[in-house]
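Hi team,

As requested, here is the filled-out complex form for the coenzyme A run. I kept the field names the same as last time so the parser does not choke. Let me know if anything looks off before we queue the next batch.

— J.
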Amino acid sequence: MSDVSIERREAMLDKIADLDAQHAVAVAGGGERYVERHHARGKLLARERIELLVDPGSAFLELSPLAGWGSDFTVGASVVTGIGVIEGVECMITANDPTVKGGASNPWTVRKIFRASQIAEENGLPTVALVESGGADLPTQKEIFIPGGKLFRDITRSSAAKVPTVALVFGNSTAGGAYVPGMSDYTVMVREQAKVFLGGPPLVKMATGEESDDESLGGAEMHARTSGLADYLAEDEHDAIRIGRRIVARLNWRKAGVSGGFEARSARTSTTDPLVEVRGASATSLETRPYAEPEADPEGLLDLIPTDLKEPFDPREVIARIADGRSETNGAVFDEFKPLYGASLVTGWAQIHGHPVGILANAQGVLFSEEAQKATQFIQLANQVDTPLLFLHNTTGYMVGKEYEQGGIIKHGAQMINAVSNSTVPHISVLMGASYGAGNYGMNGRAFDPRFLFTWPSAKSAVMGPAQLAGVLSIVARAAAGAKGRDYDEEGDAGMRAMVEQMIEEQSLPYALSGMLYDDGVIDPRDTRTVLGICLSVIANRPVVGTDRFGVFRT
Ligand code: COA
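And here is what came back:
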């Protein structure tokens, strides 16, 4: 192995170790004291409930595990969300974490559940909510009360779209929270644990003077026998999970995006790693097309990414490690399209876990007019043949300068952004390295609603690089001082640049972006193939239908 590869591998492994540490914080939830108290009450933790709910040995793709990172709230935002396979059906699972502030929903919790709900809606996934929550986080209620109503709206809209919703109630589900079981198609409540009422005994006393108790107001038995809100009364948590699995088994679920039946392949699960230890295991690929493992060892992904993102790397090396190898049905690993034109963007066709994909991957960082036009054509081609697209980001943005402006770089970038925006085949984005400026937009950044977006620990994203941004500010400030006839404070300028550079650097890092829900998770590059396999399988719950209706392509 060359010195450069060793240096890159060490840097990446350091970042991955740090990522593991950040995930461990999320898994720890409210911390040892609250976890012990919860167990002492004979209750299971959120991740333990999920592990029992999903098919034995299947993978659980946890989403947004670092939500709230860098905020005043506990990392993970007091809820676990992700996609798991229950009785062979891919479901969106949400589970309140009662060890964090009683499972109360803060602004990040709400955003995280919104995102889970968006993924469920776009991909047509049944949802299973594991409920035990103190409702709204009262000190931040102003930020969540009004927008939070969407949570309940989404449950019933899913039902109306013939995508079933299930609530398993393990504990508190009061006030607004009562509408989670209230709106769901199927409701299971655990005896002597579930408490589902609009107002608890103190509130009822205040409102009407009536004396009451938890059981008569909202106990599982009462709801199963008297109010009818509970469809099933579970004896304990394990029983609730068993019933939940039986409900999903009877949904007679058919994946609309695949023609044949399906086969849930086994993968390892773990309660200690939020983004399930998927490496070395096959995805829950539900596609029937046979496939071969990649021809190049995915471990090699660790050696590829330069520590200085200004240095380019060849994305074909990435594709060789994430795409299916050659097989009877897959004659080539990667059929590159227009290889001689716009060489700074690699485009072509491949297959991942048996699913066909079109790939757009940055090669030299900068996007020129040729790359933008090539991308536009390629996106149209994928729509013509109803094939999902994968965007592999490592771009510093569109080229600037007189020659390029006069050559129409804005027009050509706009064509690419038009194509990305109006394309109707599913998109997945992976931020491998840089994702700066409008390059983030053209390559299908978060605002362009890819079905899934994952980030590698090596990624950075911002309006521009930290040094460039600080430099621009300095030039603007110097010009402003000049215009006012003042001397420019050179010493202050150096300090300002250093401070701004550091601030932008921090804001560009993956945890900061993930904390704000700008991705669906930061992943170990070696897990990319499996994560993509799961996502493509999930996407196949709905038919993939391309469009020929784009906006006006400025020429
Ligand atoms: N908002 C903010 N913090 C909350 C909260 C809420 N809705 N519910 C609980 N917490 C906090 C508690 O203050 C406590 O904080 P601390 O450990 O820093 O002191 C922590 O969460 C754990 O609460 P605790 O009451 O010790 O846990 P529990 O498991 O015994 O009971 C509840 C959990 C949810 C049943 C109970 O806390 C409760 O009834 N909360 C209020 C529920 C409510 O009326 N919500 C309004 C809905 S709109």
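Two things worth flagging: The pocket of coenzyme A is lined by residues 98, 101-102, 104, 134-138, 172, 174-176 (CB under 6 Å). Residues 397 and 439 are 4 Å apart (CA to CA).

Thanks,
J.
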